[in-house]
Amino acid sequence: MASFVTEVLASSGKLEKEDLSGKISKMSRKVEDTKEEVCEMINKRYSDFLPSLQGSEELMVQVDEVSKEMDVLKNCIENEIQQNIHVAVAEYAKLKQQLEKNTVIITMLGYVKEFHNAMEEFSKALQEKKYVDAANQLERVELKLSHPCSKDGEPKPTGLLCCVLQALAIQGDLQHKIKLFSQVLLKNMLKPLVVYPSLSVRVTEQQGEGTILAFECLEVSHEERSTPSQVYSKLLLVLKTLHSHLLDVSISDKKLSTILGELIWEEISQCIIHECLLYSIPTNSSQLEKYSTVIRETEEFEKSLKVMEYLQGDSTDLLKYARDVNCHFASKKCKDVIVAARKLMTSKMHNTVKIAPDSKLRLPKLPAPTSDVKVKQETKKEVITMENTKQLSAWSLCLPACRISESVQQLMELTLNTLCEAVGSSTQCALQLFFTVRNIFQLFYDVVPTYHKENLLKFPHLAAIQHNNCMYLAHHLLTLGHHFRAHLPQPLSGGVATFVDMVPGFRKLGAQCFLAQLNVQRAELLERLSTAHNFCNLDDEDNYIAASKAVRQVIHQLKQLGTVWQDVLPVSIYCKAMGNLLNTAITEVISKIMMLEDISSEDGEHLHTLCQTIIEEGPLVFIPLAEENKNKKYQEEVPLYVKKWSTFKELVIVLRANLQEIVDRWADSKGPLASEFSSSEVKNLIRALFQNTERRAMALTKIK
């Protein structure tokens, strides 16, 4: 602060002036010295001539001359003294004026320092959530703008201000000082007014002190952001006050307000865009028409700034941003939609909803398509009616009953709402929204399998739900573009608006996910059966216990899966999946038994018992529906879903049959045994089950 005062005083060239009282004392001493010199000179001349001139007339003449000289000297001394006094008084007046000016500057610098300290304390208290302290600091802030006033209270001309500014400009300091002022103004007043809706400005006129700009904290605002109208009015109040009291001054044919505007406009306009206008963009197309009010308010705001010469030229980035509301609406909508979609994709999958065959998308009522489209649709309908005299079933192309994630249903609704926003929008906006919907589906394809990868392998329930989710999306992607195409602008209505190309990918994604889970379950089944010691030597109690335990574990695993997938998977997928797993188990059992070279009668009984357990309890794992009485149908259809079921049943029969019964079931390669086993497999079974006798030899000759 002291350096700035020193700089101002130095610029006026007054620091090196002598003190007024010292000047006057010096002049007084000079006058006294002059008087003494004159008296000495007169006395000397008088003493030299007095003896020679006594009693003569020449004496009087000489005296007259001396008197005249003394008068001249006296006048010279008086003139010199008078001149020096005038110079001293004028210099004193200038020093007094400079002192008053410096006093005002020092006072203003004190206000700026107090303002700066208060704002720092305010920011600190706000970060520490000390709201009472923050409010008290705001109360301390005042910005006073005043002109020096005359005794009668009327503002003085701005000549002094112009002079000071001109001097700073000559020294090259004006731009730096205004830049510092602009930074303080932006940080501590203009930006807070944009960001905080609870802040306002109070302007008061105080007699003798000038105009005061002060922050005022209103009651806690329920709005997170100020409206453009509120921001513009607060900023204009500050800038108008500064203009009328400080900045309406020309420096080198350029207004001070113009200089300040060049320094602050870019930063404050970006602040208005990102902290205010961005949040005023409508969230749905129905509100776009009302946004014309914001555009008009922005135009008026810039017009007012041009009048005060803060702005030069035509429209700025601020006005361009407001006028490009359609593009910003589409961009904001697309961003919000993608964020919402990603949130749904990463949410928990196990919350499900039931989808029935008659379930339909809740499509909103769309405006009627153009006349050209109507004609094409009617013509196409007539052709279809003529060529197809028989109608398809009402359930044709319907999605089978199943359960999907609630989040996927919400995702589908999100895409529908987004496409509805595209209807009636400008071409650019409609294109952005349409391709955002495509991006949502692509995002699902990429994100969900990766984000839920571990759970999809770990929990069969989630794998089934993911399978259904993919099939649900693929089902609706077939017709989604058709629903909206006629209501969208070109080129979307010309055939671009389609999602059919994404259908195979989603079907493959769902199938791969569920097949991966089936592979996990198959591996577990085989692991359990591996503990059965290959079903050999079952006459040993330990071996029989191990084999029996393995079979029970397989049945238990299948029943658990049947319960987990019940009412989740479509019935057809459920039956195929359970049939595939049961088929894996019995195929492994058949393989192990066929590899046995010697099966005693006791072993045969044990094998028969274990296999019979599978035959009796295997069908019971088919419980696709929650209503038990409706599952009997699917339990009777086990041979349709378990490829080796008939083979397994024939094997169980053979384990207890005699040689003749086996030969009869072979029936010269025409019996049920021949349809399930090859001749070599049957011969191996006979050799393992029966001792080497003539009857066995005769039976073997008949198996060919």
TrEMBL record:
GO terms for cellular component: endoplasmic reticulum membrane; nucleus; RZZ complex; spindle. Residues 127-345 form the Centromere/kinetochore protein zw10 middle domain. The keyword Ubl conjugation does not apply. Residues 397-527 form the Centromere/kinetochore protein zw10 C-terminal domain. One of its GO terms (biological process) is cell division. Residues 549-703 form the ZW10 C-terminal helical domain. Keywords: Acetylation, Cell cycle, Cell division, Centromere, Chromosome, Coiled coil, Cytoplasm, Cytoskeleton, Endoplasmic reticulum, ER-Golgi transport, Kinetochore, Membrane, Mitosis, Phosphoprotein, Protein transport, Transport. Residues 27-119 form the Centromere/kinetochore protein zw10 N-terminal domain. Residues 63-98 form a coiled coil. The keyword ATP-binding does not apply. It is a peripheral membrane protein. It is found in: Chromosome, Centromere, Kinetochore; Cytoplasm, Cytoskeleton, Spindle; Endoplasmic reticulum membrane. It comes from the Eukaryota. Its main location: nucleus. Belongs to the ZW10 family. PANTHER family: CENTROMERE/KINETOCHORE PROTEIN ZW10, CENTROMERE_KINETOCHORE PROTEIN ZW10 HOMOLOG. Interacts with NBAS and KNTC1/ROD; the interactions are mutually exclusive and indicative for its association in two different vesicle tethering complexes. Component of the RZZ complex composed of KNTC1/ROD, ZW10 and ZWILCH. Component of the NRZ complex composed of NBAS, ZW10 and RINT1/TIP20L; NRZ associates with SNAREs STX18, USE1L, BNIP1/SEC20L and SEC22B (the assembly has been described as syntaxin 18 complex). Interacts directly with RINT1/TIP20L bound to BNIP1/SEC20L. Interacts with C19orf25 and ZWINT. Interacts with ZFYVE1. This is Centromere/kinetochore protein zw10 homolog. It comes from Scophthalmus maximus (Turbot).
